[in-house]
Design brief:
single chain, alpha/beta, TIM Barrel, Immunoglobulin-like, 2 domains, 8-stranded parallel β-barrel, 5-stranded antiparallel beta sheet, 13 helices, 29% helix, binds ligand G2I
Length: 449
């Protein structure tokens, strides 16, 4: 945390304070992540929700990333909710958007145990029927996007944690060979698409990743079409596997591509500056590992903003897992990704200022306010400090959490107003007592991130 102080009182009751040079803040001169990744021959992708691809969300998705993965839109339950009735609207929207923005698409996902339509899950299929359903589904979906989807997560999450096969609709009905059948059907439907098996908790070397390793090695030996493995990388702060790069390398050494397909790094919420700094270091570590291995295709984040992340719903009390906060302000993790991709991040040229003023004063008390405004910079958390030299005492505050100890006052953002976007402002108020004189104090604005 850094802070700057100014002591200059503006007019009679106003003190201004400039917060300069403290990253992070969006800055037009920074090279977009996609340009940095392009220069390295890597993918930097994000999962997206098709209906959100407008406004700021669309600007960032299109401007910063060179690949998109539909977060849900291509899953079987999304595209064929009723047998024989297809809904491609959201998937089409994402593919169209990607093409308009010169982005690759990672198709996600064809054969999975989750997010399947009820008619499929609840059907009582013979193995032959099940196989036909699976291969028809692959032919239909891959065929529809032939030449437009660069890569498919053909099979998703086939393993248990101990490396045994997960008991799914597919495994139970077709045995382990459903994987080879699915890959073969996908190759037939689009011979130029890259075909992957994708799983989670396979980032480091462990029983599950070794099972995946043995599977893809044997598929290759058998001549089954397989181009790569996806390491999802839904990580927990402080738990990036130390063997990540070594694990990527061992798959690469089999002659396979590797992609980090669903990166996020979750933490307890609310976040704080220390955890966000640690998260940045861990994002950097993951991107570095991929950059270090030439067959590592790239990194996709599972949602680029905390407002579009699966974490808070699935893990109550956890979140802040993506590189942008809920208001689209880039977090330290964003800058870490940029630097790992070879970028340099420039300090913001703008500033955030805190302005103290007395809005109403009577014989024993007064109402004061502090306005925090940003221009060319942004904040995702803030704290304002000052010292009362003339015996003033705060009795009550709103829109901030204020404490006074002796002469020292500290006011921190409330749960709902920590973010001050570029061009925006936040104001909090308080009542206090005074006697004798009520001079305007010098305020200090701290960024907690
Ligand atoms: O679970 C996290 C990811 C693990 N790897 C495979 C990914 O496909 C998976 O993505 C998530 C989506 O990000 C979530 O958005 O898959 C979840 C389902 O397992 C998705 O959640 C579902 C919710 O559970 C539904 O309530 C919701 O209707 O998203 C649906 C669409 O928003």
């Amino acid at each position: 945390m850094r802070s700057l102080r100014t002591g200059s009182a503006l007019a009679s009751l106003v003190t201004g304070l400039a917060l300069l040079g403290t990253a992070p803040a969006a800055h037009a001169a920074d090279t977009p992540l996609r340009d940095l990744a392009d220069a390295k021959g890597k993918v930097i992708g994000t999962a997206v929700t098709g209906s959100k691809l407008t406004g700021t969300y669309g600007d960032i998705a299109g401007g910063q990333f060179n690949a998109l993965t539909p977060g849900n839109a291509m899953k079987w339950g999304s595209v064929e909710p009723v047998r024989g009735t297809f809904d491609w609207a959201e998937a089409d929207r994402i593919v169209d958007f990607a093409e308009a923005h010169g982005q690759q698409v990672r198709g996600h996902t064809l054969v999975w145990h989750s997010q399947n339509p009820n008619w499929l899950t609840n059907g009582n299929w013979t193995p032959a029927q099940l196989r036909q359903l699976m291969t028809d589904h692959i032919a239909t979906e891959v065929g529809r996007y032939k030449g437009r989807v660069a890569t498919w997560d053909v099979v998703n999450e086939p393993f248990n944690e101990d490396g045994t096969y997960r008991q799914t609709l597919w495994y139970n009905g077709l045995g382990t060979d459903y994987i080879a059948q699915a890959l073969t059907a996908a190759r037939a439907a689009d011979p130029s698409a890259k075909l992957y098996i994708n799983d989670y908790n396979v980032e480091g070397i462990n029983a599950k990743s070794t099972a995946l390793y043995n599977l893809v090695r044997s598929l290759k030996e058998r001549g089954v079409p397989i181009d790569g493995v996806g390491l999802q990388a839904h990580l927990i702060l402080g738990q990036v596997p130390s063997t990540l790069q070594q694990n990527i390398q061992r798959f690469a050494d089999l002659g396979l591509d590797v992609a980090i397909t669903e990166l996020d790094i979750r933490m307890r919420t609310p976040s704080d500056s220390a955890r966000l700094a640690q998260q940045a270091a861990e994002y950097r570590q993951v991107v570095n590992a991929c950059v270090a291995v030439s067959r590592c295709h790239g990194v996709t984040v599972w949602g680029f903003t905390d407002s579009d992340s699966w974490i808070p719903e699935t893990f109550p009390g956890e979140g802040a897992a993506t590189p942008y906060d809920e208001n689209y302000a880039p977090k330290p993790a964003y800058y870490a990704i940029a630097e790992a991709l070879g970028g340099t991040t420039t300090p913001p040229t703008g500033a955030c200022t805190a302005t103290y003023s007395v809005v109403n004063q009577w014989n024993t008390g007064f109402t004061g306010q502090v306005r925090i405004a940003c221009e060319g910079a942004s904040l995702s958390s803030w704290r304002v400090n000052w010292s009362y030299g003339a015996g003033q005492r705060i009795s009550q505050a709103w829109n901030a959490d204020c404490t006074q100890s002796g002469t020292a006052v500290r006011c921190a953002h409330a749960s709902y107003n920590g973010t001050v976007p570029d061009g925006g402002s936040v104001t909090f108020g308080f009542n206090a007592s005074w006697s004798g004189s009520n001079p305007v104090p010098t305020v200090t604005l701290d960024r907690e991130i």
